[in-house]
Amino acid sequence: MSTADTPPAAISLEDARKVQNGQHRDPFSVLGPHVKGGQRHVTALDPGAEDLFAVDQTGEHKLSRVDGTDVFTGPAPGDGHYWLKGKKGRNVWEYEDAYRYGPVMGEMDEYLLGEGTHQKIWTVLGAHVMEHEGQHGTHFAVWAPSARRVSVVGGFNQWDGRRHAMRARGATGIWEIFIPNIAEGEAYKYEIVGPEGHLQPLKADPVGFGSQHPPENASIVRDLRGYGWKDAEYMKGRAQRNDRAAPISVYEVHLPSWKRRMAEDGRSLSYQELAVELVDYAADLGFTHLEFMPVSEYPFDGSWGYQPVGLFAPTIRHGTPHEFRDLVEAAHEKGMGVLLDWVPGHFPVDPHGLAKFDGTALYEHADPREGFHPDWNTAIYNYGRIEVANFLVSNALYWLDEYHVDGLRVDAVASMLYRDYSRKAGEWIPNKDGGNENYEAIAVLQKTNIAAYGEHPGIMTVAEESTSFPGVSRPVDGGGLGFGFKWNMGWMNDTLSYMQKDPIYRQHHHHQMTFGIHYAFSENFILPISHDEVVHGKGSMLKKMPGSEWEKFANLRAYYGFMWGHPGKKLLFMGNELAMPTEWQEKEQLPWDLLKDRKHGGVQSLIRDLNKLYRDTPALHVKDCDPEGFQWIDANDAAQSIFSWIRRGNAGDAEVVVVCNMTPVERPSHTLAMPGAGRWREALNTDAEVYGGSGRGNMGAIEAKDEPLHGQPASASVYLPPLSTQIFIKDKG
Known about the structure:
- By secondary structure, this protein is an alpha+beta fold.
- Among the domains are: 13-96, Immunoglobulins (Immunoglobulin-like, Sandwich); 107-221, Sandwich (Immunoglobulin-like); 547-732, Golgi alpha-mannosidase II (Immunoglobulin-like, Sandwich), CATH 2.60.40.
- Helix content is 22%, strand content 25%.
- It has 16 helices and 36 strands.
- Helix 5 (271-284) packs parallel to helix 6 (321-333), helix 8 packs parallel to helix 10 and helix 15 (549-565) runs parallel beside helix 16 (598-616).
- The chain is elongated.
């Protein structure tokens, strides 16, 4: 055996073989520069090299191959910077040695991650472009506590997990490595050897900031630094815009299908195109907030984003992180807030995702009675594990912090609150007290809300919660979940059920329109007509309405008037303002050509005017969540299917009267009780010609006289068009 083939003292043959086979538990202990016998030795793995040199200011130093391996080692004089130079035939390549760089993570970060209290994990984990020890590159860090080995792989190392095996950071389960000369745009994954020594499917980065275009699914290095926000004035004043006394009208949007470039193979708009077209459109219609269905990266288009894999990555479908920021900032320039749908309730089991991440049930429960979601065939987070809880809380803060979003609408909260959600007897595990409440998930939601409002006091959080769980929008210190608002699913289900009935039968279901007031102020409610109501065979809003074509449009206009006059903030899914004849299809853009038709354009104009009236009229919004802001005039006129009520604001705000006629029968001289005598302006009439109606009404105003009725001091004769809502505002003076 030649001297060159003899294992030098810098690394044993056993260690070299472990490195060669990707089985070394601590590669930093043997690779890179190490002082042996008072002299620096350099050891490196390069499977493509016939010869390998360590190069420094003193020249090239040939390293010796360790017998039977692709590991090279040898003395390299000096103690400064060196790089590696490989040769094979005529091919020569040079590169920096990742193993000559020390750790990046600090002890405090390690401590906070270990105890699950690091609320900004994205500043430590993931891929960070940086300068480290005088060298440009990217630092990678990932949590995989049960792994035997974790490596960063990509085109830069031929997807060879032996080349950049990471450094384990003790009991935290964090692995890290700084790789020189890796810059923004590089694709990467993690190669993980599980606790039993089995190689796992390549994994995307759980805290990655970018992803490849689906169906490709590697993470992409993205540099989040240096955006240069210009929305300081907006951010200073946004707390008032998100307050329970503010006019909040939300336009819910599925970004891929709102509008498409049909001349360019039907592609979706980019974030920067949406920043102009969507923002201008929603602002023109008077919406105060945009709500995006999930933008965190997801593999399957048909999930609409509700099965996310990359919780820290804005989907590349529309552009890069900075370009998503352009969209948020454009909304802020128009005075509109941005809400994101956020999905902490479950995640898909795609091989590159979180499931069995390090070869164990790491993010999810191992027991399917707790860890498998029967509705969606997905995995459920292990909320009781401190690192998982911290991952979710930190992710919520990430979107608020890095992207200046104004709030989060939390998806499927009910599925988190109950251990027996969608499960039969024997398919779930009770809590420690024998009940069905998921204490750990409740704690995560509370922690998220405490952290979100604590770090960003001007934001809002919203729960999509379909049960009567108490205190959803009550502060945590008062025993609640701590959300700012809750979707009013009961109101939505009852009122849509009523509106779908033939008017001849509505008198027998009158309570469906009035019952919501019994609990309207038990939470801070948003009235949602969301995407869920116009998919999966439910039909469009227009199609739900009974009667002839004219009656369908009139019913829909009357319902929207009822909704905007009713206590509660408003939410409308995109396309509902167009009175679409068919339900939403995520593969197609909205049918914008409908606006050429007076009837469809009229509904759009109605939404614009309802939003303006809602914003401009304090009585319609300042006490949306306060029982003092509402009083029935007549809740019991079931025979005529007429509903009438008063909306009140603060002292000095003009009172508002809303009256709805939900039959196709006109009432030319209906006597309506009024809260005061005098002139009442007809501020809105859903039967107006400009909305596609017949143009019947009260010539702009009614006169109330001092003739008491229904406990009110005055009354007026009012013309009620068929299938209409009218809103009257008291003239001052």
